[in-house]
Amino acid sequence: MAKQNGLSRRRLLRASAGAGVLAALGPPAGRAAAEQRAGGVAGRTTEELVFVNGRIHTMDGNNTIANTVSIRNGRFSAVGGGVPVRGPGIRMIDLRGRTAVPGIIDNHNHIVLMGNRPGYHTPLEHTSSIIDVQETIAARAKAIPRGAWVTTIGGFHRNQLFSRDQNPRLPTLVELDMAAPDHPVYISESFMGPSATNSLGKRFFERQTPPVPVGDDGSIAIGSQSTGRATLALRQTLLTFEQRKRGAIDAMTYGLGLGVTTHLDQGAFQAANAPTDGAAHEDNYTMHMPFLALRDEGKLPARLRINFLHQDSTPDLPTLTERLKNSFKFFGDDIVRTGGIGEFIAGFGPSSPFVEAAKRVARAGWRAEVHSLSATDFQQEIQGYEAAHAEFAISDLRWVIAHAPFITEPWVNRLKALGGGLSLTGWRYLAGTPEQNGPPFRIIVDNGIHVGMSSDGMQIAPMNQVLNIYYSTTGLNARQVLINVGQQITREEVLRLFTASNGWFLREEDQIGTIEPGKLADLVVLSDDYFTVADEKMKKIRSVLTLVGGTIVHDAGILQPA
Ligand SMILES: [Zn+2]
After folding, report:
1. How far is the CA of 458 from the centre of ligand 1 (A)?
2. 266 CA to middle of ligand 1, Å?
3. What is the pLDDT of residues 339-361, one digit of tens each?
4. Ligand 1 centroid from CA 162, angstroms
5. Is it the case that residue 30 has pLDDT exceeding 60?
6. What is the C-alpha to C-alpha distance for residues 422 and 16, in angstroms, rounded to an integer?
7. What pLDDT is recorded for position 45?
8. Distances (CA, A) of 471 to 230, 345, 466, 494, 497
9. How many angstroms separate the alpha carbon of residue 23 from the centre of ligand 1?
């Protein structure tokens, strides 16, 4: 494990040398800085923060690239122009030619599920080998209490760990023991496994009644009687309200390290507290509470927008009806706001009350968002939207179809005629094939319909936007097989989808998504030049500095005051 020690030493060095800008500017680093946020505008400095010598891609209507940007009272106060004169009340940070972009908006993910995971959820989406996984788990184990669970539930796939000519597999019990001998480890793919554990984890699972079946190699099979029971046991053992709050901060802090400043959460499958619950199940009525508690304490470090997911299967639509009667639409503030009904408005199946649900959502004036995965489901969905529109106009309500891997241009045009939009994602990156590919990025971006980009993390897809960008610009999956032929878009185009264009999906295009005077100062300074770095290296781009509303909420310790 020599390599691991070397790596953790490097990580330690980076951590101790860190907090360059923050240390010099005053507030403490990382989470502590976030904790100093007092919600709303309180806690924000009245001083002006000025970035100089940057390549600041504003993503405004003219694609302006500026050298300087100034921030005051949480908003961009000046963009471009001459370097401001130094003086009292002005703090300057030298970007030394680095690329900066607007804060990334993820218009469709499951950050609330990620925040409610049992154990110390440890994203593995960036790993590309078993050794990478071991190093990530080892570093995580060092940073958490002794004996605490290191868990990774969803967001990665064994495909990403092996090259094309090798057989993909999960790490073994021995490999996980080498990474974390003193911590139980549980890593679980997708919704329902397969999964793997180490010796301490195996002991825990075999003590359950009845025991969760674990192979000698630490493998836990796919399905409710193995992975489902393992995940349930962890949830029932580990998930206190305080642990959920800690998990919520961890999840958002992870996003800020990537540059994601706003999440539009798309809900969960309603949990039954049974082994049939998978990674995407939670209680839709309580899972936001840890995030709301953090918001009240001024500790929520990134923006959260909440969609409410409903899957009623009977025409009386009991849960949707109560939601529309008793919840407030588009209610909240800059940090947390309700966003719509989605990513389901009704249950599946031939007798789904989808059309009636769409009519009720339309009548109530809410936003609706549903996902499409098959070669035909978008047709029923768009027809349902049209039926609702015939009775209650939805042209101004910004209804959305998400993912839409197989949508065709005539259907895009029907959705466009309703004032609707398409939310695209690169989730095929992990496990897509030349047959299971899409979405047709090129057709849709060229069409002119409202379009934005999301990760659809955290179960079947990574949250990391650069992995989604890699897929949309190269058409390559995690095994570097070209699967989305002819549908690639440019880096400029997909960055626009993840920033300026995504404002529309939140009904906040006047507030976030571009670097323009008056907008909320969400900004990301990148580790590499996004526009010129090689494709494979793009996957490693991280944020070196992230601001939300003018507050530094992530600092890798690289930038220094000018
Ligand atoms: Zn989703």
Report:
1. 8
2. 6
3. 899 999 999 888 899 999 999 99
4. 26
5. no
6. 44
7. 56
8. 32, 29, 9, 10, 14
9. 38
What whole-number distance in Å separates Cα of residue 201 and Cα of residue 186? 7
CA distance 510 to 188: 40
pLDDT (mean) for 294-312: 97
Residue 204: its pLDDT value, please? 98
Exposure on the CB side of residue 191, measured as CA atoms within 13 A: 13
Q: From the CA of 369, how far away is ligand 1's center (Å)?
A: 10
Find the 117 Cα to ligand 1 centroid distance in Å.
Answer: 16
Structural tokens at position 499: 């920033």
Report the half-sphere exposure of 529 (CA within 13 A, side-chain side).
9
Kindly give the distance from the C-alpha atom of residue 108 to the centroid of ligand 1, in angstroms, as a whole number.
Answer: 6
CA distances from 235 to 193, 195, 248, 425, 474 (A): 15, 15, 15, 29, 38
Coil/strand/helix, residue 503: helix
Distance CA 491, CA 498 (A): 11
What the block records as the tokens of 7 is 């790596």
Mean pLDDT of 122-140: 97
Ligand 1 centroid distance, CA of 459 (Å) = 9
pLDDT digits (tens, 9 = 90+) for 268-294: 999 999 999 999 999 999 999 999 999
Going from the C-alpha of 513 to that of each of 209, 268, 503, the distances in angstroms are 50, 26, 6
CA–centroid distance, residue 456 to ligand 1 (Å): 5
| Average pLDDT, integer, range 174-193 | 98
β-sheet bridge partners, residue 57:
65
User: Is 80 exceeded by the pLDDT of residue 11?
Assistant: no
148-168 pLDDT per residue, tens: 999 999 999 999 999 989 999
**Which position has the token pair 């029971």?**
229
Compute, in angstroms, the gap from residue 410 CA to the centroid of ligand 1.
Answer: 24
pLDDT of residue 46: 66
Buried b (16+ CB within 10 A) or exposed e, 291-300: bebbbeebbb
d(CA 42, CA 296): 12
* CA 460 to ligand 1 centroid distance, Å: 9
Tell how far the Cα of 343 is from the centroid of ligand 1, in angstroms. 6
Percentage, residues of the chain above pLDDT 70: 92
**Which residues fall inside 5 Å of ion ligand 1, going by CB?**
266, 343, 456
Neighbouring-strand partners of residue 150: 120, 185
> What does pLDDT average to over the chain?
92
- Residue 554 bridge partners (DSSP): 546
Residue 114 pLDDT exceeds 50: yes
pTM of the model: 0.92
The pLDDT of residue 494 is 98
- Listed residue (443, 396, 390, 392) closest to 419, CA to CA: 396
